[in-house]
Amino acid sequence: MLLLLVVYSCGNSWQSDLTNGINWNEEIIYHVMQRSFYDSTGDGHGDLKGFISKLDYLEELGVTAILFTPLYASDFYHNYFPTDYESIDAEYGTLEDYLAFVEAVHARGMKFMMDMETQYVQNGHPWFEESYKNPDSPFGKYIYYSDTGNHYPEQFLRPSGSDIYTYQAWPGQLLSIFHLDLNHPAMLEWMKDFYAFWVDPYGDGSLRSGVDGFRIDHIMDDLDHKGIFTGLYEGFWKPVFEHVRSVNPDLFIVGEQSNWLAYGDDMMNRSGADASFGFLVRYTIAGILAADTPDYAVEQHAGNIGETILETMNHMPEGKTYVHFLENHDIPRWASEVGSHPGKLRCGAALTLTLPGIAAIYYGQELGVTGMVADWSYDVNHIPVREAFPWTPDPADKGIAAFYKDTGPWWDQSYFNTGASNKFAFSVQQNDPKSLWNLYRSLISLRKGSDALKHGGFSMLLPGNDNLFAFSRFTEAEIVLVYMNLSDKPLLAETTGNGQPLFTDRAKRSGNNYEIEPYGFVIIREAP
Fold first, then answer.
1. How far apart are CA 259 and CA 301, in angstroms?
2. Secondary structure (DSSP) of 68-105
3. What is the mean pLDDT of residues 295-300?
4. 299 and 311 co-located in one domain
5. Domain check: are 323 and 423 in the same one?
6. Rounded to two decimals, what is the model's pTM?
């Protein structure tokens, strides 16, 4: 008998406020690489004005917060290693365009988060160019050199004291990446001011074009395990975070823990970040649903998802949370992981929007777009998971931000070339009530209307079947039950029959129970 037999439960910390009264567990983040979203100028690159023109789309989808990849000037297409921290990449627009964008986001009641990786610079940055082989340069304090003559800057993924190494970057440039001297007090003070600028760009306390949060990429206590930049959580990041919160106490900070097989609790405790990423939850789900079991997955049954969630929740410090996701800019698209299986895509949508944590959707996930990380060279391997948003199936149509078009094998295997975009383009899905996009829209609406789903506790249920994932989300005023068939055979979910079905997908009621088709699910509200 299934019935509400609780085997594990966790919930108190998830109902507490985060960052002075703003509970980010209630937010739904849309994570997007803006270069790939919407091109308003016809140069193939997504831009800020183009994004403003598509805020209606995000509002209709129902997301509440936007997370960009870095915006600062860089020769790398992904902007993670800058030539100028203080400038907006010209292909995105101007600083004025950026400020107008943030104001437009806020005018719709949405939040904006900026991704930051401020541990490195690339060649071309004046700090490096003016201090390299020039020990008298005033900028030498910002770059870490392993010698007194400034001949050997510390380099990303390279041994100390090695000659300058260049990476093959898209679309063919040779670029180098250098470490900032995070040990130098001047560097810390500069970073405090730099981060604070984006919180209050006008410096008048209005915060009207300020970010609502930061994502800190690749946050580590011992940067790149070099033994050079150590104690960074408390010695570098904590002072930066404390400073920006003196400008805006409600600022939200999520750290991307460098160890994806860790919970991030040590990072949060010692740096003061508010959240980490639920990599282990994502990997557990993939271990069950992926078409080809990933190397990182352990053979599991459906209940292991709940066990991993509980372990993750139990590792969260009081008042902290984690971001729950299936896709991001560094890992395979969910659709490719599950072989574009319609049921598994729909289960992925339901898991994204019913499980604990801050729900995050990676742009195009709501359409089922595909893409795998490749093995060409360092910089272009991830272009297949950062493709242009398919507003229409045709890459020649207005707004398609196919910046990588005709530049290499990543374009040759693009979903625009294989014809896959004919199935999952937004123009195709928006008017189909059974489309994946409409499913995401419905489930987002459901989550936003349920305190239990937004920030309630979590309990596993004993389903009596290893292929049935059953759990509850709860507050004192609401209980929501989810039953999901994670197999290719029909299953019977035994329930009390007293609940109100909120959403069914390939499931139908049979007496007090539900017959659930393969990879179907039912969401039920019961009285507390």
1. 25
2. EPP-EE-SSTT--S-SEEEEE-TTT--HHHHHHHHHHH
3. 50
4. yes
5. yes
6. 0.95
